[in-house]
Write a structure and sequence with these properties.
By secondary structure, the protein is of the alpha+beta class. The chain is built from two helices and five strands; from the N terminus they run ββββααβ. The protein has one domain. The N and C termini lie close together (8 Å).
Length: 93
């Protein structure tokens, strides 16, 4: 199951703007780490970047029970900063 997180369009690279983060899956090793598979898309739903991030140690402990943290940590690792009022969480498709 995928979860989508839309936000105001941002410049990502010289040639690409992005406005949507899709988290395809999160694999968890309890009390240790999580592996996150993601896709970053533009406003036309074209995939600009996809990949895998692992969060462990302090990042994993900060997750707690707020799944929005997963979106925030992936965007942070990709170098995308959002305004506090920017995100528009979208329910599972």
């Amino acid at each position: 199951m995928s979860s989508i997180y839309e936000f105001k369009e941002r410049v990502f690279t010289q040639n690409d703007n992005v406005s949507k983060l899709t988290v395809n899956s999160v694999s968890v090793e309890l009390f240790k780490k999580a592996t996150i598979h993601y896709m970053l898309q533009n406003s036309n739903n074209v995939i600009v970047k996809s990949g895998i991030f692992a969060i462990d140690n302090s990042e994993y402990r900060l997750w707690a029970d707020d799944d929005n943290y997963i979106y925030q940590i992936v965007l942070q690792k990709l170098g995308i900063t959002l305004d506090p009022v920017d995100p528009i969480p979208v329910s599972d498709p």
